[in-house]
Write a structure and sequence with these properties.
alpha/beta, about 425 residues
């Protein structure tokens, strides 16, 4: 029996309130269980509880064992002087506050609905990726749909926190934030972390100075990425190498660690060389990029905007090592969807929130009009009644998996809560 489960039981009232009594045989009537305190101090604040018909207003502390009161040093802490009720699973000793007054104790184990304990135990003992996979089919569709929206905006809020930090480090430069975020996701799944690091190695201010020359942009991007360190007889390669050596000396540039950027298991069109060449063209061809991306209202706008292709050299190359058949290296719609989901929509949300604008309807309309992501996690969830019909759904599922399922936070999950609540309601009806 974990303490956070006892918090959950108390917070949701998942116990019988008939004939409640303290360990001193005092009659207890709960008017209000109080507000769950997730910060330092007592567990529940501003509770209202009648003990032998006397109304007490104050705080409630919850422990697995009564002795935890002393183990946590509460008897010496003034913050716990206003505890009106000590709620425990097992009463193994009387407890006293700083004024040496005995604190009334309620043994919750006598009153908890046993079905919730049984189902919670079954839940936490399940070692599958989805602990509730056998019961989720019983959760109504309305609950799941609403929870998807909540999960998605929870994810956007987390990304907004990251954006705020980036703004602080860039003197509120949204173009700088866009540059770092966009380059990160141009790395794809395999090179996302490496490209994020690349964005820190290359100064956006320096990049801006050379945006009128796609050749110089490529020299900077390929050079700092470490692609121009070897001997190569390719004419274009040697030209880039010469240009980068000049820029490197001029700006005192550093190069990424060796072999940090990967080609392994990537389709040629997703090679980091192709993505960097496309990224160079994007910044070469576009002024005020952030402003223009914020005007995108639907996927079609993005598909038209990102009609970008790598330079002519890349028509016959995927990297610098050998020549290939002629093929124009355009940015595909699937990749643009990734940019929409992970860059444009989150930055739209962050920009609006930063300026006190609430236009969630626009955010929802855009994200719901994008195709869902495809990966192993989305596939697993689709088999148990959580199907991703659009990008909002897939992002919500990713959020659920990363922040709840993988961290075993079933008690904070509304789906698991719904499952447990149904069992409690069934038991309450029986009683």
């Amino acid at each position: 029996m974990k303490e956070d489960f006892l918090h959950y039981i108390w917070n949701n009232g998942f116990f019988s309130t008939d004939k409640l009594k303290t360990n001193q045989n005092q009659e207890v009537k709960i008017i209000s269980r109080g507000f769950h305190n997730t910060n330092a101090g007592p567990d529940f604040l501003e509770a209202k509880i009648k003990i032998d018909e006397i109304l007490w207003v104050g705080n409630v502390e919850i422990h697995k064992n009564s002795s935890d009161w002393y183990a946590h040093g509460h008897e010496k802490d003034k913050a716990y002087d206003n505890i009106i009720l000590h709620v425990v699973y097992e009463d193994n000793m009387p407890i006293y506050n700083l004024n040496n007054a005995q604190v009334p104790t309620l043994v919750l184990s006598k009153y908890i609905y046993q079905n919730v304990v049984k189902n919670y135990t079954k839940l936490i003992k399940n070692k599958s990726i989805l602990r509730c996979q056998n019961d989720i089919k019983n959760v109504d569709k309305f609950t799941i749909i609403n929870y998807k929206y909540k999960l998605y905006f929870e994810r956007l809020e987390q990304k907004y926190t990251i954006v705020k930090s980036m703004l602080n480090h860039s003197n509120n430069d949204w173009e700088q934030v866009l540059f770092e975020t966009l380059l990160k996701y141009f790395g794809g799944v395999v090179n996302k972390d490496a490209f994020e690091l690349l964005a820190k190695y290359i100064s956006y201010d320096i990049l801006k100075k050379h945006k009128n020359s796609v050749f110089q942009l490529e020299a900077l991007l390929f050079g700092i990425s470490g692609f121009l360190q070897e001997e190569n007889n390719d004419t274009y390669y040697r030209s880039l190498q010469k240009e980068f050596n000049f820029l490197k000396a001029k700006y005192k540039l550093e190069i990424l660690p060796n072999n940090i950027i990967k080609f392994h298991r990537l389709r040629p069109l997703n090679f980091p060389t192709i993505r960097l060449a496309q990224f160079a063209q994007l910044y070469h061809q576009t002024d005020h990029l952030f402003e223009k991306l914020m005007q995108i209202k639907k996927p079609k706008d993005a598909y038209q905007f990102f009609e970008i292709k790598a330079g002519d050299y890349w028509n016959t190359h995927y990297n610098f090592s050998k020549q290939t058949k002629n093929r124009v290296k355009k940015i595909g719609t699937n990749f643009i969807d990734i940019i929409l989901i992970n860059v444009i929509v989150p930055l739209k949300f962050a920009y609006q929130k930063h300026h006190g604008v609430n236009n969630n309807e626009e955010i929802i309309n855009l994200i719901e009009s994008i195709k869902p992501e495809k990966n192993s996690i989305i596939n697993i969830f689709s088999k148990i009644n959580l199907v991703a019909e659009n990008a909002l759904d897939s992002q919500a599922i990713i959020q659920l998996n990363e922040n709840y399922c993988r961290q075993n936070k079933c008690l904070q999950c509304e789906i698991a809560h719904n499952i447990l609540k149904k069992e409690i309601n069934n038991e309450a009806r029986k009683n």
